[in-house]
Amino acid sequence: MKKVRHVMGISGGKDSGALAIYLFNKYPELEIEYYFTDTGKELQETYDLISNIEKFTGREVARIEAADKSHEDPFDHFLKLYGGFLPASNARWCTNKLKLEPFEKWVGDDPVISYVGIRGDEDRDGYISKKNNIQSIFPFRKNIWSEDVTRHLLKNSNIETLLVAYENFAPSEKLDRIKEILNVPISPKYDLKSKLNTLIDIDIKTFNKVVFDFLKTTEYPLANVEDFELLDNEDNLVRDDIFKILKESGVGVPKYYEKVEYEINGKKGEYARSRSGCFFCFFQQKIEWIWLYEQHPEKFALAMAYEKDPYTWMQDESLQDIIKPERMAQIKEDNIKRTQRIAQNKKSPYLIDLLEDAEGEGCASCFI
User: Whose CA is closest to 113, among 136, 142, 141?
Assistant: First the structure.
């Protein structure tokens, strides 16, 4: 069997920071290599979090840089190669060049288990490498497996194989119900997600053992290990759990998540950053750009300097335009209205933050 590497990327965000602490505390036997792909355009709070993680774990976080032989920051190096074309949601060259490619070069051809900090209250799968030697695992979710694994596992042609596997692993009192579910083929009326969730709800530990047994017949990296520590994992961590981990560990929550109060036309609102990653990330909401302008004016000025006609960070508006007094006031008022509307329509006091997370997924959170 090949030696399998266990790796985990730290973006500077709350989820990846909490995952580093969580894995270190709960699975100390895992020899996890922590890494950070540095674009050269991060806020200081990102580097502070990485330093705190190193102090907490006693392990060095490897710094990975694209274009490490260039005399420029990685972003500036590739921006020149792209002729000044700024990245955008439909042309995310920064994600590929500054995050994915350096990471895949770093791991090489080694079989790798990559731990990803996507929470149990998020409905996304995150980064799944196209390289066969990299397998993603999601410890914060009840279902730790990636969609590609469960899709192959639960395909209709595998029903007989799964029935045999569950005979070996399932408690006798649950077997009849499991067989009933397995024998229902996936169809438009009973999709993959429904079948998956039902099997997990019946017995997550047994499901994990069946998946692990299935992986032995594949070329996934986990086929190269005798046992896997997370097979007994039943955790389902949500946003509140993440903040609790960061606070109780002493590592702390990155300061750009702290809500800052502002007042406009006699109304009070709050803003903060919802992401880690580059300070000029094009996925930022407009209220976050205003936060950057008022809280880190020097960074906003640097971001604005990159805008050269016709390339702007936002498709419909330039940074120079959004800081005009009337426009800035409108953005702030719109943010207050939006916050109030969500609070009135939804029961959960945390939904506003969850929606900010969903709207604020940039390259760092999608990747790691």
Answer: 136
Domains of the chain with bracketed CATH: 5-145+232-249 (3.40.50.620), 146-231 (no CATH), 255-367 (no CATH)
pLDDT digits (tens, 9 = 90+) for 38-52: 999 999 999 999 999
pTM: 0.90
Residue 333 CB neighbour total at 10 angstroms:
14
262: DSSP letter: E
* Spatial CB neighbours of 182, under 8 Å, sequence gap ≥ 6: 159, 162, 163, 166, 199
CB 10 within 8 A of CB 42: no
Greatest alpha-carbon span in the chain = 69
Q: In the chain, where do the E strands start and end?
A: 5-9, 32-37, 62-64, 112-115, 134-137, 260-264, 267-271
Residues 6+ apart with CB under 8 A from 181: 195, 198, 199, 202
User: Over the stretch 169-188, which tens digit does the pLDDT of each residue have?
Assistant: 999 999 999 999 999 999 99
Residue 124 three-state SS = coil
- Contact by Cβ (8 Å): 117, 245: no
Q: Are 136 and 127 in contact (CB under 8 A)?
A: yes
- How many other C-beta atoms are found inside a 10 Å radius of the C-beta of residue 346? 13
260: helix, coil or strand? Answer: strand
Q: What is the DSSP string of 2-71?
A: PPPEEEEE--SSHHHHHHHHHHHHH-TTS-EEEEEE--S-B-HHHHHHHHHHHHHHS---EEE-TTTTSS
